[in-house]
């Protein structure tokens, strides 16, 4: 039987692809990624994209995983490629199941090209050391205007300043009406009003499994050598995603037969965050790096470059790459005295961060019941609550170590969340993250897409957790502190959140004591 949707998909893809000539890049994740010479090659060969070759994708992770030296340039090209596959697929489904009117007078070729460019440019706003720069110098900094206080807003501004004329020229040359406006609607920190543009945006970001996340999980696991954590069947996910319109509101439905692949994706994401992005030593390096960046800001006025960008001069900001700052830091480490020299030497030469984890981490998991879930979600979305719990843990750990010559300032408590909500949603000024805890399930039947049900992900036992870790200044660490701190973290979290873990142990003992050994004699386990 002929799959009409697949034929339509080929028609949509062929029409777009035949407009251009194509080149390929060898890529370890997809085999090859493709870009057109007429538009995408010109953007790739611009300062905006080429500078991403000199910014590592994972900040300081290469100090823990030596293979993690891949760049944001590789990721950007990968997202463009994957987003292109996803947009061709979703547009073909809209055309076959709903009709051209659901594209809201936007040309399919313009939508496809805009989504591909959005994938290519989605990280254009990153400075040196990516999120570390953002957290150290942009978030909560009163010197930085709100319109440039995270990398998404900065990227939007850079595209606006440097690419508007070029992209509008592409519109006229290749008959791609509204290309620039579609692109900017996708990149804009605020959601677009048009339903079709909202769907296009979800393919890149702000949805449960956008191209950005699908690419970086697979790419990061490959380069860190942790393939066991990051494998994702991305093709099955996007090919079994359907557009749906409910009460004039657009949704993305996942085919109910792909529920297993979606759960595997969530577990892959959780594993990558727990074991790679949130590796305890990596977190200590990030903290050291952010301290260095703040001190360099005092000396070199890095924040001033952000402010110049807000005023219309992006070039000082665009020069802020890892390559440039590693050169600066190495000079500081080798040729100067003082605190900054000591810190940079520790990061680049000794590779010994100031903070060393003490005790075992405590993981608060959704498997611990509804009370735990309540506190997990509050810790995810309420920064003040998270800070209060961290302060309480630090007080208790200090109280247990103060007679051993440890000061409260010698203790750092790191509280980390792992949830299905994309971290981009949790940026300052963003909202709507709680809505992403719902997955819409559907089914394709004949010539209809039918909504089956809404799945509240927390109810389904998805990996949702908070990690609590304690660190002590490296020179003060003693082996005997390990068990003391482990128990103190456990006691404090359970006491503050009202969770009684001992009840679980009691229940297990009660059930096990009721079993008769004679009854199961013939079922002895041999493996």
Structure notes:
It is built from 23 helices and 10 strands. The chain is of the alpha+beta class. It has 2 domains: 4-284, Hypothetical protein af1432 (Orthogonal Bundle), CATH 1.10.3210; 354-420 and 462-514, GMP Synthetase, Chain A, domain 3 (2-Layer Sandwich), CATH 3.30.300. A 4-stranded mixed sheet has the order 3-4-8-9. Strands 5, 6, 7 and 10 form a 4-stranded antiparallel sheet that branches. Strands 1-2 form a two-stranded antiparallel ribbon. A hairpin with a 2-residue loop joins strand 8 and strand 9. Helix 15 (280-300) packs antiparallel against helix 19 (339-350). The radius of gyration is 25 Å and the shape is globular.
Write the layout of secondary structure elements.
Elements: H1 4-17, E1 22-27, E2 31-36, H2 40-44, H3 47-50, H4 72-97, H5 108-121, H6 130-138, H7 151-162, H8 164-174, H9 179-187, H10 195-204, H11 211-224, H12 227-230, H13 234-239, E3 241-246, E4 249-255, H14 259-277, H15 280-300, H16 302-310, H17 315-318, H18 322-335, H19 339-350, E5 355-357, E6 362-365, H20 370-381, H21 383-401, E7 411-418, E8 438-445, E9 448-456, E10 465-473, H22 481-497, H23 502-513
Parallel strand pairs: 4-8
Antiparallel strand pairs: 1-2, 3-4, 5-10, 6-10, 7-10, 8-9
Condensed summary:
GO terms for molecular function: dGTPase activity. The protein has 527 residues and is an alpha+beta fold. 53% of the residues lie in helices and 13% in strands.
């Amino acid at each position: 039987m002929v799959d009409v949707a697949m034929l339509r998909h080929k028609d949509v893809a062929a029409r777009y692809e035949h407009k251009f000539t194509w080149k390929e890049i060898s890529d370890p994740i997809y085999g090859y990624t493709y870009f057109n010479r007429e538009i995408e090659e010109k953007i790739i060969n611009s300062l905006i994209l080429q500078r991403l070759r000199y910014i590592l994708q994972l900040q300081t992770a290469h100090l823990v995983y030596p293979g993690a030296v891949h760049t944001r340039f590789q990721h950007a090209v990968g997202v463009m490629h994957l987003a292109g596959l996803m947009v061709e697929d979703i547009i073909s489904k809209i055309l076959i199941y709903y009709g051209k009117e659901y594209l809201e007078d936007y040309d399919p070729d313009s939508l496809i090209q805009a989504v591909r460019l959005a994938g290519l440019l989605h990280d254009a706003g990153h400075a040196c050391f990516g999120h570390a720069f953002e957290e150290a110098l942009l978030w909560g900094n009163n010197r930085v205007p709100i319109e440039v206080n995270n990398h998404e807003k900065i990227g939007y501004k850079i595209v606006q300043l440097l690419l508007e004329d070029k992209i509008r020229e592409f519109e006229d040359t290749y008959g791609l009406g509204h290309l620039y406006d579609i692109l900017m609607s996708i990149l804009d920190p605020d959601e677009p009003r048009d339903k079709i543009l909202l769907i296009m945006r979800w393919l890149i970001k702000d949805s449960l499994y956008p191209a950005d996340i699908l690419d970086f999980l697979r790419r990061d696991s490959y380069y860190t050598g942790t393939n066991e954590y990051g494998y994702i069947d991305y093709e099955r996910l996007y090919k079994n995603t359907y557009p749906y319109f409910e009460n004039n509101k657009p949704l993305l439905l996942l085919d109910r037969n792909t529920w297993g692949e979606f759960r595997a994706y969530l577990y892959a994401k959780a594993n990558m965050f727990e074991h790679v992005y949130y590796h305890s030593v990596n977190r200590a390096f990030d903290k050291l790096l952010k301290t260095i960046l703040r001190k360099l800001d005092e000396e070199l006025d890095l924040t001033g470059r952000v402010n110049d960008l807000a005023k219309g001069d992006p070039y000082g900001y665009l020069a802020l790459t890892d390559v440039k700052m590693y050169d600066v830091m190495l000079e500081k480490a080798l040729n100067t005295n003082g605190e900054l020299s000591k810190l940079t030497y520790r990061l680049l030469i000794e590779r010994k961060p100031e903070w060393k984890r003490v005790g075992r981490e405590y993981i608060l998991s959704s498997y611990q019941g509804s009370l735990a879930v309540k506190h997990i979600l509050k810790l995810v979305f309420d920064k003040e609550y998270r800070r209060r719990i961290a302060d309480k843990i630090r007080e208790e750990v200090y109280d247990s170590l103060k007679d051993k010559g440890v000061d409260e300032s010698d203790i750092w408590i790191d509280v980390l969340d792992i949830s299905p909500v994309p971290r981009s949603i949790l940026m300052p000024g963003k909202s709507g993250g709680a809505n992403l805890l719902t997955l819409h399930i559907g089914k394709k039947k004949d010539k209809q897409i039918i909504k089956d049900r809404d799945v509240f992900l927390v109810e389904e036992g998805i990996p949702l957790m908070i990690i609590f870790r304690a660190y002590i200044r490296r020179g003060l660490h003693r082996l005997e502190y390990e068990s003391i701190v482990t128990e103190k973290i456990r006691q404090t979290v359970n006491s503050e959140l009202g969770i009684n873990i001992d009840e679980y142990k009691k229940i297990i003992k009660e059930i096990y004591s009721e079993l008769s050994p004679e009854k199961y004699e013939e079922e002895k386990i041999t493996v």
